[in-house]
């Protein structure tokens, strides 16, 4: 395999650079949970979105395919949702 073939193969198999993917949504803080989840899913259809009410006990650990949306007692987003 010559150098030009190798470059072509690498370009086809390389994953999309992660620096182009959105990883946080500060604009949804204060928004109701449903439209916030819709916005996140529009931006990142590749992640699972979890809506978590106050007092939810969480297991430690990050997951690059998950966004947690923490809501307050009124159902509004309480803090910036992030991938992880």
TrEMBL record:
One GO term (biological process): response to wounding
Pfam name, any one: potato_inhibit
UniProt keywords, alphabetically: Protease inhibitor, Serine protease inhibitor
Region annotation (Disordered) ranges: 1-22
Phylogenetic classification of the source organism: Eukaryota, Viridiplantae, Streptophyta, Embryophyta, Tracheophyta
Biological source species: Panicum miliaceum
Protein name: Subtilisin inhibitor 1
The family this protein is said to belong to: Belongs to the protease inhibitor I13 (potato type I serine protease inhibitor) family.
GO molecular function: serine-type endopeptidase inhibitor activity
Compositionally biased spans, kind Polar residues: 1-10
